[in-house]
Specification:
This is Amidohydrolase family protein. Keywords: Hydrolase. One of its GO terms (molecular function) is hydrolase activity, acting on carbon-nitrogen (but not peptide) bonds. Pfam families: Amidohydro_1. The longest helix has 23 residues. With about 475 residues, the chain is an alpha/beta fold. Helix 2 packs antiparallel against helix 17, helix 11 packs antiparallel against helix 14 and helix 15 crosses helix 16. Helices cover about 45% and strands about 20% of the residues. A hairpin with a 2-residue loop joins strand 2 and strand 3. The termini are far apart. It has two domains: about 100 residues, Urease, subunit C, domain 1 (Roll), CATH 2.30.40; about 325 residues, Alpha-Beta Barrel (TIM Barrel). The protein is globular.
């Protein structure tokens, strides 16, 4: 009898030990085709998630002790990091606060779990949304913001910090640091060449990340050597690839040539040998480039494409749609020569983006979506940007890297984001089809995981429906 009791106690103890050895996790994504952007490999794996972080990634069939609260069978599905849109704008003044907040839903429904807000006039609201999203009190992507742009006196964009002196530059950066912005955005509408370069150098002294446009009164070499971390758009890269850059710079300084007048001259003076030296310089200084191809094409063909039935207009609201009119009016009133030049420039930029990628310059996928940027819709435009890259000869794997993988590198967030790796934040997108075979498959979204939040296909559709604005 005593032996029987002891045996029973041992069995009960072993059962308890077995139960206690199970590791409870919030979510398991099983049988997934995991796209590892860092290597380009696709592996059939199980992903285990708890508290918004990836706890383990195991090959399918590997014995484990994980006990998930929720299970997603991803057989035949493809998993990769949630997309990053590395250039958006949350802006337009107080009357458009609600519209901009509505955009946050569109990012999530498109699998975009992180955005880089590249300057606007809604900083208090943006910072509030950023904090609410971080605490999961608001549905939306992680926001990294520059706050207001830095520019010169009488700046084009509302809310810009205007600088005329070296002291102004320091004060502007002081205010941005007080706001705890994630990076600094420089604009080129009115800032002097000297203040522009001083601003870049001062950000480097303070350990701040800086991206921006570039006044044509300075050279690309001066900008890079001052410490610029990322160039927004390809105008400035084209300038640095032209054999006549110094001549054009002097004409801009003397007022003999304007920004748009310089475009045909620079494009015609593109030199492959100069370009290769420029690409080497960009790589050597670890400068990222944001091509913004999709918006370029959209704006270049405003005179030919009818957008009146675009499905995404229903999510914009009349206030945002009204801001499109300025660019539309300018496009429709432009001369035939200007229209032709703009289209040629658009084609050239596609070729330039491919050349940059082939040379190993790091690209960032950014839509430039937001108020005033006609028909470049938040969310869907990031997918169109990836499409545009591939259409211009960039391999699908490289295009995918320009989103989350390179985005995390640029903002020094690779220890938490950008890859499907143990310990990383569980921002993931599950796709029905392989984007390496067809980049348009990035739009075939099955599930979005944003930290501890999981959005099924049905929930994503409900979220999209809730974003409709009158």
């Amino acid at each position: 009898m005593k032996t029987l009791v002891i045996s029973t106690l041992i069995l009960l103890a072993l059962a308890c030990m077995d139960k206690n050895s199970k590791q409870q996790v919030d979510l398991a994504i099983t049988n997934a085709q995991v796209i590892h952007l860092e290597t380009g490999t696709v592996e059939t794996q199980d992903i285990f998630i708890s508290n918004g972080k990836i706890q383990a990634i195991l090959d399918v069939g590997t014995e484990n002790t994980f006990e998930p609260d929720t299970l997603i069978d991803a057989t035949g599905k493809f998993v990769l990091p949630g997309f990053w849109d590395n250039h958006i704008h949350l802006r337009g003044g107080d009357s458009l606060v609600a519209n901009n907040k509505n955009f946050l839903k569109l990012f999530i429904t498109n699998g975009i779990t992180t955005v880089r807000d590249a300057g606007g006039d809604l900083t208090p609201s943006v910072i509030q949304w950023k904090n609410q999203i971080a605490s999961e009190d608001l549905v939306g992507p992680t926001i990294y913001t520059s706050g207001p742009k830095i520019d010169g006196p009488n700046a084009t964009w509302a809310g810009s910090l205007e600088v005329e002196t070296e002291e102004d530059v320091k004060n502007a950066l002081d205010s941005l640091q007080e706001l705890q912005v994630d990076f600094v955005k420089l604009y080129d509408s009115r800032i002097s060449g000297g203040n522009y370069l001083n601003a870049i150098k001062e950000t480097q002294k303070r350990g701040m990340t800086v991206s921006g446009h570039m006044p044509f009164t300075v050279t690309l070499k001066e900008t890079v050597e001052a410490g610029m971390d990322a160039m927004e758009h390809l105008y400035y890269i084209m300038k640095g690839c032209a054999s006549n850059e110094l001549e054009v710079t002097e004409k801009l300084k003397s007022g003999k040539m304007g920004f748009w007048d310089a475009m045909p001259a620079l494009m015609q003076a593109y030199s492959d040998s100069t370009a290769q030296k420029t690409f080497t310089m960009l790589k050597g200084h670890d400068v990222f480039v944001v091509p913004t191809l999709h918006i370029g094409k959209t704006l270049s063909y405003l005179d030919e494409v009818d957008h009146s039935n675009d499905p995404y207009l229903t999510y914009m609201g009349q206030g945002i749609i009204q801001t499109y009119q300025g660019r539309i009016t300018r496009a429709m009133s432009a001369s035939e020569e200007v229209r032709k030049d703009r289209k040629e420039l658009d084609t050239f930029f596609g070729q330039l983006a491919q050349s940059l990628n082939k040379a190993g310059v790091k690209l960032l996928a950014g839509s430039d979506s937001g108020a005033f940027n006609s028909y470049t819709y938040p969310g869907i435009s990031l997918h169109k940007e990836l499409e545009a890259m591939v259409q211009n000869g960039i391999p699908p794997l490289d295009a995918l890297r320009t989103s989350a993988y390179n985005g995390a590198q640029f903002l020094d967030k690779s220890s938490n984001y950008g890859s499907v790796s143990k310990g990383n934040v569980s921002d993931l997108v599950i796709l029905d089809d392989n984007p390496l075979e067809d980049i348009r498959n990035t739009q075939h979204i099955y599930t979005v995981v944003k930290g501890t939040q999981v959005f099924s296909k049905n929930q994503l559709q409900e979220l999209l429906n809730s974003a409709i604005m009158d």
